[in-house]
Amino acid sequence: MTSGVAPPDPPSGPIPLEGIAYGTQGLEAFLAIHLGDAHIHAAFVREGTLLPLTELAPALCAAYRASQGAALALPARLRRSSSAPSLTDVARGTSGARAPLGSAGTHTTSPGDPRLAHTTPTETFSQRSLATASGSPGTPGGTPLPFRTSPAVLSSRPPREPSEPLITLEESGCIVLLRRVRAYLVVCLFDAALPLGMARLLASRLTSTLSPELPRGEVSDVGEPTSTADSAPRSVVGEGDRARRLLELVSALAPEPHVARLRVSLRAGIPPAALEHPTSIGPEAVPRLETAVEEILGLDRAALRRLL
């Protein structure tokens, strides 16, 4: 006679990010915090670093909101008078007021001066480069350039998608970098000895790696989290077997099988320990699991269910 004892509940807590953050120079902590309730969705803390995460997460969310409020007020304070010439107008010499002699936008050469061909305010750097490349008369040393770039070609390139600003907080012992990714605040804490430029570069790379794996959806300032990493209630009959087949499928077909479960964990908001026991995954978590597998494999719902 079997006892029918159910497996223990998996421990709740942040999803570990060692697979992404381990070995990063100067990195003390790497966090993904939900902006709705300051729930720590995923975290990496360097061994030996002591951080009060429960108090730190709400403080970082408040700092992000405060910086956003200050950023909204900046354009009004920095707005200049419409009568003041811009730097571009001064450089081109098209502003209403005359600039001092010898400053940008004015020239003391006469019309017959041969230097005028190289110092005309309306001539752009690209035009001078193209003239030099073609070896036009009056251009000394017409050395061909290895390539020619037309300004029209540069202007036809599609603009880069705008990204959330990177907010920097500097303290005596650490550098804190914040960037929003949908409903989450991604936080990188570096040792203060690391140069700020290197810290910003590493933070951008870490955020770019983590961003596709975070759950989809946005959140308002007082919104609720889209998912939590807490252990879910017991699965109903059939749901545990469905979750097991989904995990087997993503492990077999994912491009990088060794990190497939970590990606599922991050996207679905289910702790890795729970994925080790599919029968412990509750019925409300299985649809999130199915959506995460669809995104990782690039399949629609109908195609995925045909494979199950």
TrEMBL record:
Compositional bias per record (Polar residues), positions renumbered to this chain: 119-130
Highest taxon in the source lineage: Bacteria
Region Disordered, residue ranges: 82-165, 212-237
Protein's name according to its UniProt entry: Uncharacterized protein
Organism for this UniProt entry: Chondromyces apiculatus DSM 436
